[in-house]
Each structure stands twice: as structure tokens, then as C-alpha cells.
Amino acid sequence: MKCPGCGSKAVGKVGPEQYYCWDCFIEYQYHGNRAKLYVVEEDGGLVEF
Length: 49
Ligand SMILES: [Zn+2]
Fold this sequence. Notes:
The chain has one domain (11-48). A 5-stranded antiparallel β-sheet has the order 1-2-3-4-5, with no helix packed on it. β1 and β2 (18-21) form a beta hairpin. It is an all-beta fold. The protein has strands at 11-15, 18-21, 26-31, 34-40, 46-48. Helices cover 0% and strands 51% of the residues.
């Protein structure tokens, strides 16, 4: 599973259909075959990218 943002393979699974990229520090979630990107804030909140 590659990061849809930067194409990196340094991606970890953090939940069902939910992944985190260690290279660009975004979290993303698949809805069907569309990926939604989120920025993780310092307090752990998610902001849609
Ligand atoms: Zn990335």
C-alpha cells in the first residue's frame, strides 16, 4: 500500500482502511477506491487535507 500523497512505502496501518505515512506525516483512509487525506495535529486531531 503506497502513500497517495508522496508515493512512499513507509506506511503503517492504524485502523480499518486507515493508514499513516511516516514520510509526509499524513493519515489517509480509503472510501471505496478514493483516498481521503488528513493532517494529524499535535493534539492527535485530524484535519482534512
Ligand atoms: Zn506520504
